[in-house]
Amino acid sequence: MRPKGGSKNQALTALLVILSVLTLDQVLKIWIKTNMYLGQEFAIAGNWFIIHFTENNGMAFGLEFGGDVGKIILSVFRIIAVAGIGYFLFNYAKKGAKTGLIVAGSLIFSGALGNILDSAFYGLVFNDSYHQISTFMPAGGGYAPFLYGKVVDMLYFPLISGQFPDWFPVWGGEDFMFFRPVFNVADTAISVGIGMIIVFQKRFFEEEPTNAEGGEAQEVKEA
Question: What is the pTM of this model?
Answer without folding.
Answer: 0.83
